Amino acid sequence: MKKYVVPMMVVLAFVIAACASAQGNWAERVSISGYLQFRYEGGDELPATMDDPEDFSLRRAFFNIAASAGDRTNVVLTLATFDRLEDVGALNYSTDDLIVYNLFIDYQINDQWSARFGQVPTYFGLETWQQSCDRLALERAMILEGDWAGSNASGFYFLGPSDRGVWLKRAGEERQPDVYLGVCNGQGRARDVNSSKNYTVDLKWERDWGICGVSWFDGDLTVGPPIGEQSRDAINAYVKFMRGPWDVQAEWADGTMFGFDRDGWYIQVAKVQEAKDWTPYLKYEELNSAGPGTPLDYEAIHAGVAWQLDGNNEVTLQVSDIDYTPGAGPTTEAVKFGLSWQAGF
Question: In which residue ranges of the chain is pLDDT below 70?
Fold first, then answer.
């Protein structure tokens, strides 16, 4: 059955477009966008527990279709593919094929309240929900999306930002924050395996100088043996300052997952070059975890530059200096590099 899901979604996309066309100019009711990221990564080897390819890859590709289904309703479908593979027990979570990444209904209840129902990207923190095409660094911080499933190096959203549930948004007025309240499976893009649900609260302020916010979620994550059902909870705070040529953002998260207490943070500084097409940046991050298995200390400095070739193409070169310390040591030091070409449409 699974092999038919994506083709059916593609057919659904065209049906949505056709329905919109039947009601008027389809171009006014349907928007199509997306981007592709091609990458070459290499450098020193890291421990075998970490996914460490050295090759050319199609790192990400997203295809978004948003269709108006009325004055208050939009339907959003996102198809995606990644050069990452995770097999997390009962989740059978694979990202090497074309997948349904987002599929939800967005309904405007009134001027202040709106709702999203379906497979929805999270509002947690900053980098987790921030689109990869808008991020300077090649990857999200380890504390948010470390991708070694079931390990002490897993970030809170190693399954990706999307989950299945319902979210309510209350738009802030004057200096009040936007408030997001959610109930979801907590299993990423997989079905739930029990009746327990995850609960989320996100507060986000927009200011003249940038944005800031706090987030919280609590629930569980269930995967196959020997991991089973585990508590998964976290709190997050972030700030993004944008004034003049400087773009500075910092984020911190703390919580538990897979039996490990983990916390981490990062700070990123970018210099926007006036009348130039390139932006240099520097990012420092840490991840610390401790639990019944092997504790972990992870530190990294990422230095890079992003060239905006034109309105649709961007090339990013990044070099990372990484210290990885499991338990009492020894520390593995590695220098990694990545060259990424992103094309948007």
Answer: 1-27, 47-53, 84-96, 147-151, 225-227, 293
For residue 90, give the DSSP letter.
G
Cα dihedral sign, 153-154-158-159: positive
Give the whole-angstrom CA distance, residue 171 versus residue 109: 11
Cα(275)–Cα(278) distance, rounded to whole angstroms? Answer: 9
Is the preceding omega at residue 47 within 30 degrees of 0, hence cis?
A: no
Please state whether the peptide bond connecting residue 7 to the residue before it is cis, i.e. omega within 30 degrees of 0. no
Write the CB contacts of 245 (distance below 8 Å, at least 6 apart in sequence).
271, 272, 273, 274
CA distances from 327 to 72, 154, 287, 288, 332 (A): 53, 16, 13, 11, 12
For residue range 136-168, list pLDDT tens digits in order: 999 999 999 886 555 677 889 988 899 999 999
Give the DSSP H or E segment for 308.
Answer: strand 296-308
**Phi-psi group of 267: left, alpha or beta (phi > 0 → left; psi -120 to 50 → alpha; rest → beta):** beta
pTM for this structure?
0.87
Element (H, E) at 201: strand 198-207
Closest CA to 127 of 235, 31, 240: 240
Please say whether the beta carbons of 238 and 147 come within 8 A: no
CA 167/CA 287 separation, integer angstroms: 29
Bridge-based pairing state of the strands 210-223 and 198-207: antiparallel
Other CB atoms within 10 Å distance of the CB of residue 172: 15
Asked if residue 318 lies in contact with residue 294, where contact means CB atoms within 8 angstroms, the answer is no
192-220 tens-digit pLDDT: 888 889 999 999 999 999 999 999 999 99
Name, in order, each residue with C-beta under 8 angstroms of 25's C-beta and a sequence gap of 6 or more. Answer: none
Token pair listed for 170: 């209350």
